[in-house]
Write a structure and sequence with these properties.
By secondary structure, the chain is an alpha+beta fold. The protein contains 13 helices and eight strands. Helix 1 crosses helix 5, helix 3 packs across helix 5 and helix 5 packs across helix 8. 23% of the residues are buried.
Length: 323
């Protein structure tokens, strides 16, 4: 099934498995993962087989969730960390499904139908959906069964973990803030206006010269008392032209190096010489500067509490999954 439809718990499970690959009790023996093929069984959990096509699909799901191209990875040797930990995930998912059975957790048929229909909406037609199932060696019944298993696992984990997560206090959040102040520093920022004259063909010396001459002509107008913002609106070829060339505040690393090196070297209200970058020729005026500063605790308190709660949740989750 589409990993984007999995609950946060299921994705955390997969993430934990990926991040704990060096854990001794969670490793799969090299010989088990070195000979995968589309027709072999890759693991047995209490007599239940996991096949390589399920493993391929699990890898695709996780990589898609991370925004990576799964087609590249599935062509790689299947003894890589991604495959090993995907197998760990499938094993854990199967064991949790068994635990859900032992706990007598039932699937709400209405929820199953809703989740099933939501998944199908990812496909432009019924036939495309059936092609997806066929391409992954899944029957409709098998697919619904897997979907039901995951829903039951979600309910199990919610029952076993959610109720045990304690709220993060303001004192805990403040202690984290004081101990990690470097994480809440705003780097120095500046606000500039600029004028850009583009070079349409950097390999054509004549076009480069024409663009530079135009930029220098505009700079002369500024030196003669012309208003920077008005000249930017009139001549700049950057999208910021309609705002008088205003680029707003930015920090180092946000702009092209040649541009920001000059911008950060200027004094307030100082205008640069003509600056060449891969985009063309710029004229830069520094308007404001903000020094590096610590973000107030009140502005990040909710963010810190959310992070600490997630870490607490993950720890409870990992402990339960390992048990």
């Amino acid at each position: 099934m589409d990993v984007r439809r999995l609950s946060a718990w299921i994705f955390v499970l997969f993430s934990i498995m990926m991040l704990t690959s060096c854990s001794q009790d969670n490793k799969i023996d090299d010989q088990q993962t070195a000979s995968f093929s589309d027709s072999t069984v890759v693991a047995l959990i209490n007599g239940k087989a996991i096949h390589s096509n399920e493993l391929d699909l699990a890898v695709k799901q996780f990589l898609m969730r991370l925004g990576k191209n799964p087609d590249f990875f599935v062509k790689q040797p299947k003894d890589t960390v991604v495959y090993r930990e995907a197998l760990n995930w499938l094993i854990s998912l199967n064991l949790l499904a068994e635990e859900a059975d032992n706990s007598k957790i039932k699937v709400d048929e209405n929820k199953l139908e809703l989740t099933f229909n939501n998944f199908k909406r990812n496909f432009p037609s019924e036939q495309k959906f059936l092609d997806f199932l066929a391409g992954n060696n899944l029957s409709l019944e098998n697919f619904r069964a897997k979907l039901a298993d995951e829903l039951r696992v979600q309910e199990l984990l919610d029952q076993q973990i959610t109720s045990k997560i304690e709220a993060i206090t303001e004192k805990e959040a403040l202690e984290f803030y004081n101990s990690n102040s470097d994480k809440f520093l705003l780097n120095e920022q500046i606000r500039v206006h600029h004028i850009l004259i583009k070079v349409t063909d950097p390999n054509d010396p004549q076009k480069v010269t024409v663009a530079e001459n135009k930029a220098r002509w505009i700079l002369d107008k500024i030196k003669q008392g012309g208003k920077f913002e008005e000249l930017a609106r009139q001549y700049s070829e950057d999208p910021s032209a309609f705002k008088g060339g205003d680029l707003g505040f930015f920090a180092r690393g946000d702009m092209i190096k040649e541009f920001e090196d000059v911008a950060f070297s200027l004094k307030i209200d100082e205008t640069s010489d003509v600056v060449r970058t891969p985009l063309g020729f710029h004229i830069i005026k520094l308007n404001e500067k903000k020094s590096s500063q610590l973000i107030p605790f009140q502005e990040v308190e909710s963010q810190i509490k959310a992070q600490l709660k997630q870490e607490r949740s993950n720890k409870l989750f990992e402990d339960y999954v390992r048990k």
